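Incident log entry.

Two folding requests arrived from the same account within the same minute. Monitoring flagged them as a possible duplicate submission, but the sequences differ. Recording both here for audit purposes.

Request one:
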Amino acid sequence: MWKGSTLSLLLGIPAWCAAQPQGTLIDRIIAVVGREAILYSELTVRTEQARQGGAALGPAAVCGEFEDLLYEKLLLEQAAIDSVVVDAGQVDAELDRRIRYFSAQLGGDQKLEKFYGKSITEIRAEFREQVEDQLLVQNMQQRITADVRVTPRDVQRFYNSIPADSVPLINAEVEYAQILRQPKPEEEEERRVRRRIEEFRESVRKGEKDICTIAILYSEDPGSAKECGELGLVPLGTMVPEFDAVAMSLKEGEVSQVFKTQFGYHFMQMVERRGEYYNARHVLMRPQVGNPELLKERTVLDSLALVIRDGGLRFYDAATRYSEDTESKDLGGVLIEPNSNSTRWDMSALDQQTFFVLDKLKPGEVSEPQLLVMPDGTKAYRLLQLISHTPPHRANMKEDYRMIQQAAEGKMRAAAVDEWVGNRLEGTYVRLNEDYRQCRFMHDWTLQEVND
């Protein structure tokens, strides 16, 4: 989440945790860790975020947020000692990602600027240092836990240590696969779009038209069109390989040839390059697909479903051979849950359409072709196969090993962090404001405190 420093957030903290001086409190230092200070406003923003997330803000919760800040400042202090830095391009890319996200949440850049009362440029400048610190904290955390390794014996010991009445209840889960078919436009439509975008590209190259205007009026990339086609600074690997390859071949200000990706036809103009990061403006135009092409793919899937049900072809082999979903086809169509990187999906986390289709299938059964609207707005058809269905149950080593392994690893990482904090506090100057010494912390943050 982003942090801010508005007056409304300063009013969000419970009165118990800071004695208010006479007059209006703007901000003050409430702790120092090495050369890093913690401001009152930082804690109020943290507690307000927790409150908005539904947390009960009692004294213990506020103290917990405060200790999290102490820990982060200790990581930043150690990063300075170890000369750990974050690449400027990485900071820019993260800033761009966050601004795009919050712009989308609020309904566009204008509403984002209105919300903050600042321009996008000013917002970037205000949050740049904060984002850099967050990336540094992440890097330091990874260093601390880099050597943590969990063996099967560790996992078994961890599971055995859980009291019987505390073993977590697992929701109903499924494993499923898909065969996805996306309709192809007719050749004449491909040629029409190619001619059109070539004309636009040539007018930009000759200086007759501005790429910004063309992007706003004609580009079919909804994420960048309203930004004059500009992507913001992105690292290599963010875009599809064909896009990266063209970007890396251009000099600043240069306009590319028209090229094709899975999304359609593009041309781009390079804005700037910083090592393996680049910022470019681009125009995207997609050949349109009609109902005949869409129904053709439905017919293909109808035929495949019949062959699979008759035993003439395994779903796995059909997906490998005929599916057009690049992320799942090499896995026989099996879908991977992105948060856990597992093949098992919590039924309650599935989108509504997928839930209702799978809920009617038995393991091994194949659905009828389902119309699907893709994230970019195009339409496709897919077949779904339910591979397995696990009813709600108490976690066990056979069915839930990966989840238990992750929990065991998390506990070992936490232990590594606790040991690291304890060692660093022995030689790090820490001073807390008197108002916060009543907190019951996980660590003794006053170990090296110098009393006045």
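Request two (distinct sequence, not a duplicate):
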Amino acid sequence: MNASSTPVQSSPVPKSFVAKPAQASPERKWWVVDATDLPLGRLASRIATVLRGKNKPTFTPHVDTGDFVVVVNASKVKLTGRKLEQKEYVRHSGEPGGFRSEVYGDLIERKPELPIMKAVKGMLPKNVLGRQLLTKLKVYGGPDHPHAAQKPEPLSK
């Protein structure tokens, strides 16, 4: 028998992991982030990655495999340049004359959580999964949060 007729044994190829919605990460971790002097966009992209679960080997695009994120000191987040006076948040009620705009400086005094929530929301999928992921984000303007029982760990930068 010659060597060309011998069947070649190949090593088994590992299959890709695909999480099912029912088995998706039963134990979710809790992370805490101190937003003091962190740039808003970089902070939001890091949070969106953790909420989505892209930092885990079990990431599946159509399943929620992410963790919870608690953000403290949201009122001390940093913006570069003159965005404090120039950046505007706009909304429209749908009625005639229903256009409203507010500069970032005023918004951070009124609702310090909103800029981080909106920045992270813009980085998540625009569907049911994205809305579900956003419920795992907890943002607080001050240094205190009511999630000490979950024992959140500090999120590395």
